[in-house]
Amino acid sequence: MRLWVCIALLSVVLCVSADRPRIFQGMVRAGQFVRDAAGGARDMYRAYKDMREANYKGADKYFHARGNYDAARRGPGGAWAAKVISDIREGWQSRVSGRGAEDTRQDQEANEWGRRGGDPNRYRPKGLPSKY
User: Any alpha helices (H) in the chain, and if so which ranges?
Assistant: First the structure.
């Protein structure tokens, strides 16, 4: 009887420590992507909220870069969310705001810079409060 109990316990230990099936690993990766994307969307929203609160002339590029930087640091899902949100925002603003193609190009450059891991402070204007 003791032999069978030992065999059963050994089997349980081996099964628990075995590699997970591929489908399970894929589901875990998909879940992580979704969590990263949701966190990235929150990062983008926080940068937008800070930009509105600061209301500082010439600081929009900094907040674009910072939001994309924070989101991309979360992983592939965060980088994906940052790209989608940035592209939608710039597409909408280029049609509505009337700031022109040059401003949109500069915003997209700041977005890309942040997503690639570049320091957002490159776009930080002098005099912006240290809170941001």
Answer: 2-17, 22-54, 60-72, 76-96, 101-115
Q: Which residue has the higher pLDDT, 33 or 19?
A: 33
Architecture of domain 35-123: Orthogonal Bundle (1.10)
Are the CB atoms for 36 and 74 separated by under 8 Å?
Answer: yes
CA atoms within 13 A on the CB side of 110: 23
* pLDDT-derived band at 44, boundaries 50, 70, 90: very high
DSSP 13: H
Q: Which amino acid is at 109?
A: E
Task: Decide if 81 contacts 111 (C-beta within 8 A).
Answer: no
| pLDDT of amino acid 103 | 87
Sign of CA dihedral 47, 52, 55, 57: positive
DSSP three-state, residue 85: helix
pLDDT at 58 over 80: yes
